[in-house]
Amino acid sequence: MGLFSQFKQALTGDNIRRGFDGAAQSMRDMAANPTGILQDAGTVQAYGEELRRLQREGILGSGIIVSVIPTGEVAAAGVDWADFEMEMSLPGRDRYIATGRLMLPRNTADMYAPGTRHNVAVDPVNPNHFSFAA
Q1: First-to-final CA distance of the chain
Q2: What mean pLDDT comes out for the span 99-116?
Q3: CA–CA separation, 134 vs 132, rounded Å?
Q4: Do 60 and 68 contact (CB within 8 A), yes or no?
Q5: How far is Cα of residue 124 from the mean position of the Cα atoms in its chain?
Q6: Regarding predicted confidence, which is higher, 101 or 10?
Q7: What is the model's pLDDT at position 91?
Q8: Hey, which residues does 109 pair with through a beta bridge?
Q9: Is residue 84 a contact partner of residue 103, using CB atoms and an 8 Å limit?
């Protein structure tokens, strides 16, 4: 799927509505536990540092999402943990299925549906440790 096709898909009425629903749930989460934002900050910062490391040091390739299973765990306000299963295609390597736990913002969850293709950065040491890449 090309970049403009992805934008077109993202801007459908259902996706916009789900994005607003996710944002509204995030606001309710923050209102119910305002000090939770401070607790979440460390988790989000460490996760962000690891994503930046993968972008710098990882093997760049593409992956097709096979499944996404929300864990029910909140990572931070508006962001949940989800278990991903992806078919990875990396240069010079056979395709393989990777499994990993990633943060999934509620307002963008529809962009990560099974069957969608994404750029990935994969840890050179652990092929199950990956992130979405730009």
Answers
A1: 15
A2: 91
A3: 7
A4: no
A5: 19
A6: 101
A7: 96
A8: none
A9: no
Question: Hey, what amino acid is at 77?
Answer: A
**pTM, two decimal places:** 0.70
Nearest CA-CA partner of 19 in 91, 104, 126: 104
pLDDT exceeds 50 at position 78: yes
Strands 79-89, 96-105: pairing kind? antiparallel
Q: How far apart are CA 65 and CA 81, in angstroms?
A: 16
Question: Are 105 and 30 in contact, with CB atoms under 8 Å apart?
Answer: no
Q: For residue 12, what is the DSSP state?
A: S
Answer yes or no: are the C-beta atoms of 126 and 57 closer than 8 Å: no
Q: Phi, psi (5° rounding) for residue 61?
A: -160, -155
Give strand pairing partners of 81. 103
d(CA 129, CA 125): 9
pLDDT recorded at residue 47: 86
Q: Half-sphere exposure of 43 toward its Cβ, with a 13 Å CA cutoff?
A: 15
**Closest CA relative to residue 18, chosen from 96, 129, 104:** 104
87: which strand partners?
64, 97
Measured from the Cβ of residue 44, the count of other Cβ atoms closer than 10 Å reads 15
pLDDT at 9 over 70: no
CA pair distance 26, 21, nearest whole angstrom: 9
